[in-house]
Amino acid sequence: MKNIYKHFTLPISLFLILFGNSISAQNSGKTEWFDPAKPATTYCNPINIGYNYTTFNHNRIPESRRSSADPVIITYKGEYYLFATNQAGFFWSKDMSDWNFVYGSFQREPGDDDQCAPAAWVVNDTLFYVGSTWKRDHPIWKTADPKSGRWTRHVNKAMLPTWDPAIFQDDDKKVYMYYGSSGKLPLVGVEVDYKTWLPKGNQADYATLYKATEVEDIQKPYGQIKEVAILDPSAHGWERFGPNNDMEPAPWGNFIEGAWMTKHNGKYYMQYGAPATEFKGYANGVHVGDNPLGPFTYQKHNPMSYKPGGFVIGAGHGNTFADNYGNYWNTGTCKISIKDRFERRIDMFPAGFDKDDVMYSITAYGDFPIVLPTSQRDQTKGAASGWMLLSYKKPVTVSSSEECMEVETHRMDNGGKKVYEKFCYGPENLTDENIQTYWSAKTDNPGEWLQMDLGRPMEINALQINYADHKATQFNKAMDIYYQYKIYMSNDAQNWTLVVDKSKNDKDAPHDYVELSKAFKARYIKMENIHNASGLFAISDFRVFGNGLESKPKAVASFKVDRNKADSRNAMISWKKQADAVGYNIYYGIEPDKLYNSIMVYGDNTYDFRGLDKGTKYYFTIEPFNENGIGAKNKIIEVK
């Protein structure tokens, strides 16, 4: 039976007295359209894990905020394990959708990092794990039972001062470490002795390294340590520092970090992140070689994972892994960068190697629902579900709104200086597809609500509730952090049906993705807060996916790519704006059949693109999209 209540204009407290308790009593969490026990068939970025709150005064910033970055996902005994920066543990999943937290902190003092940019790899059937350090003070941990949260020390002190480390074991059982994070120096790699974890070779050759205290000395090649990758921003536009690859010279250099090694068809793919985590163009690149320590050659298709537009922005510093069916995935770091330039989240995209062994990652519609794997499949076109965004710029009414205020921001768009900006927390922020803005109610009280009008009845398949950390008070991990809410739908804003009931939820889900077991057709959607994790009831975007049930947009007219003759790393892209389009996806690549990279644009008809490589010929096309689907791509154009 449907759960229906009549809409009245009532104070929140009276609404709860009259209706809240009775409606909750009728439902244990399962409805006709949503079953919390049923596994999802899709997921949506950012990955929905219980992102940890930073430690108190982290980076000398007093505000409470969640963050994580630098992910590594690996398979172990048929399940998936996710390790990331400063989580007081890690996550595991059977299906890459439902992630479970395992407490496993290595923090020694309250203000310390736990594990920053950790490395994990299965070595000799055992799961190995190490965090970042510039010192010689980190153990190498291992376990054969990661869900227990218990680790033993393989070695007490790893003499290699590895920041942003990666572990790789080759088919011949040799073990390698790669590491580095610098605006000046290259990433390096070396074979290590499995028993001692010391770099191979005469230890006297590493005496200077073992005594070094400055990063410039620590990250240099010594002994058998080899340079494996370095940036060339003078030739590669996307490797340039800045909000839009536009800060030359870079004040701290163009950063290379986030090493990862993937072996495919006998070739070694040396992955790295650049140019900095706080920018929309943060991406993963790759160099290719015939040996685990190189030499490596810059792959012509680069960056291999790139997402500078949309709700989720940024795809750098992650790893590449194969799922249980043999499909590849690339993980990365996406930015919020308001309360702290290191305020970040984690994303994951379909990836692979094409028939020419070119490594790619598909980020097109990468923050819309993506189909989870159930078998091996071709991912050169991605794995989008086809469910479109229904909520963009739709009007929202709310129970209350926090007042505007002057806020000290730490985002690098302002050069890293302390800047006070006026932030407002109105309902328009709920549907602007901007992860840096959010709506906040005046309280966290049960009964605070938001109500969206889609404009007409639409077919709804999924929702994503992206909570914001407004006036939160939590620092570091706690095991009583969770959200509870209910979602109702209606065609007249008077008679409401309870579609999603999370009133009994006890799992932390700050980017909660809800896939309906069957579609619901409605015009209005209402969310009622029951319990908030910390701070005020605040949401960045309330995102709705499905089908608008009308016409797809027509093909784009007047599409042009004007490559800068003075600096061929830059191009101005333009097209005629369409009334029937919500947004556009620009595709580009090194061959007409390798248009693997994409740029999502909302509400505009130009894009200042500064991510091209000198001396490389490119091919471009564009497609429009709206609530009803995706329009036809334009004829591919060649850009020399």
From TrEMBL:
Q: Which residues form the Fibronectin type-III domain?
A: 555-640
Residues in domain F5/8 type C? 430-547
Check the UniProt entry and state the signal peptide residues, or none. Answer: 1-25
Listed A to Z, the keywords are: Carbohydrate metabolism, Glycosidase, Hydrolase, Polysaccharide degradation, Signal, Xylan degradation
The record's CDD domains line, in alphabetical order, gives: FN3 (cd00063), GH43-like (cd08982)
Q: Which Gene3D superfamilies match?
A: Galactose-binding domain-like, Glycosyl hydrolase domain, family 43, Immunoglobulins
Q: Which family does it belong to?
A: Belongs to the glycosyl hydrolase 43 family.
Protein's name in the database:
Family 43 glycosylhydrolase
Q: Which organism is it from?
A: Flavobacterium ginsengiterrae
High-level lineage: Bacteria, Pseudomonadati, Bacteroidota, Flavobacteriia, Flavobacteriales
